[in-house]
Amino acid sequence: MTLRAARLSLPLLAALSLGACADATRSERNLGVGALGGAALGGLAGSFSGNAGWGALLGGGVGAGAGYLYEQSQRAQDRAYLQGREDGRRVRRRY
Q1: What letter would DSSP give residue 23?
Q2: Distances (CA, A) of 46 to 20, 32, 36, 59
Q3: Does the keyword Transmembrane helix belong to this entry (predicted)?
Q4: 33 C-beta neighbours (distance < 10 Å), count
Q5: How far apart are CA 54 and CA 66, in angstroms?
Q6: Whole-prediction pTM value?
Q7: What's the structural domain count of the chain?
Q8: Range of the domain at 33
Q9: 12-37 tens-digit pLDDT
Q10: pLDDT digits (tens, 9 = 90+) for 61-92
């Protein structure tokens, strides 16, 4: 009976945890996705060596770092876009 309850409760738990991300900022989403993806890949790689827990822990940390770097890259692109748009407006005003 315990296995059946777990099969029913895990999808519900997954849906509820995804619902908690509805109000997350872009930075929080990028960090979360990076950490989750890194933990999944780390756990998978760690399972081959016999220690999935450590693999998931290390992978989550590396993934969170990658998510942070991705967010910083996106912010730099946003700033460059806005700067270019402002420069274009200034040029148009002269003529």
Answers
A1: T
A2: 28, 20, 15, 9
A3: yes
A4: 16
A5: 18
A6: 0.69
A7: 1
A8: 24-94
A9: 777 777 777 778 888 888 888 899 89
A10: 999 999 999 999 999 999 999 999 998 888 87
Q: Which residue has the tokens 């016999």?
A: 50
Q: How far is CA 62 from the centre of its chain?
A: 11
Q: Is residue 30 part of a domain?
A: yes
- The answer to the question of residue 18 being in a domain is no
Asked if 44 contacts 62 with a C-beta cutoff of 8 angstroms, the reply is: no
Give CA–CA dist 72/37, Å, rounded.
Answer: 18
Cα gap 28→48, rounded to integer Å: 30
Asked if 54 and 43 count as a contact pair (C-beta separation under 8 A), the reply is no
Residue 5, domain member (yes or no): no
Widest Cα–Cα separation across the chain: 77
Residue 63 and residue 31 in contact, taking contact as beta carbons nearer than 8 Å: no
Residues in the chain: 95
